[in-house]
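Pinned message: reference record for LLM class flavin-dependent oxidoreductase
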Amino acid sequence: MAMETGLIVHPYMRPERTARQTFDWCVQQAVAADKIGFDSIMLSEHASQRWENIPNPELIIAAAARQTENIKFAPMAHLLPHQHPAKLAIQVGWLSQILEGRYFLGVGAGAYPQSSYIHGIKNGEDTKFTNEMVRESLEIMEKIWKREPFFHEGRFWNAGYPEELHADDGDDQHKLADFSPWGGAPEIAVTGFSANSPSMRFAGERGFRPVSIFSGLEALKTHWETYREAAEANGHVADRARYHVSQTVFVADTDKEAKRQVMEGPIGYCFERYLIPIWWRFHMMDGFIKDAGADPADVDLEWVVDNVFCVGSPDTVVEKINRLFEATGGWGTLQVESHDYYDDPAPWFNSLELIAKEVAPRISLPTGVQA
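Predicted structure (tokens):
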């Protein structure tokens, strides 16, 4: 199968952007991606970060769904420790019904302790604790979607589903609304970041769709092996066609023009001021340095553009992605990291069109590599 294309929107907007500008740019990207032929768009949920400021991805999804026809939407991810699972289950089910098959659900624990603190969780940096919250939340949500009576008194939440009452006189006032997702249950995706990601293990255990944030070849290979082992141990098929990997990709007519636009444009601005410091902080840079056999002292924006990103002409980007496929086994969907081209969208939309029409059709999973 040829590689599919998606967007992942965090959204990496400059801190001075207004909420309206961020909202409009996210919707504009969804509409453009749909027309270009992208398969999916994921919208992150963050409540504390100025550069990553979408507290309610479902609002963008609902607005963009009215202006698109084919592209599938996913919150990536709803942070389950930050919301009551009963409320979220109803919200997800209703939005899934509205989109009639163009929706899948991303779930996560949250990466920023500040955001957890806002939601009353003082030890948000304890990933074991927040992952336990994810499991309990999802257990409640799945029970609500089944619409069978229960009451859950848990460690973190209480929730239930009542018995439906039936009146003898045909009175409908006691009937319960059906907020189960379109098709009965949603497709669920989970994002992995760290090398030994517990999220990838959880995704494999449950047969969920795996999504990796690219942080080096070894991390990517570890993600897949962790997922595959957990999936097979629990009776699920580990199919690379369902595997999404996010990466920074920018395509222009020539290598020189693509690099110039990245270095001098919104991508370079964001990485210098926000993402490169985060990569050092979370040791994400370590994997990239190991891949290239580089000296950490040599690492700057240009080094990252040349050695980490997939930047260049269509031929160059095809070559770079194929090298990644050869080294890691490949994936089904390239989830392109979105950036803030609000002031001048043309270079960004041109890049997306080249990715969808001149890059992705030339990249396929290696023959026989589905697991």
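Pinned by admin. Summary line: The CA atoms of residues 13 and 340 lie 5 Å apart.
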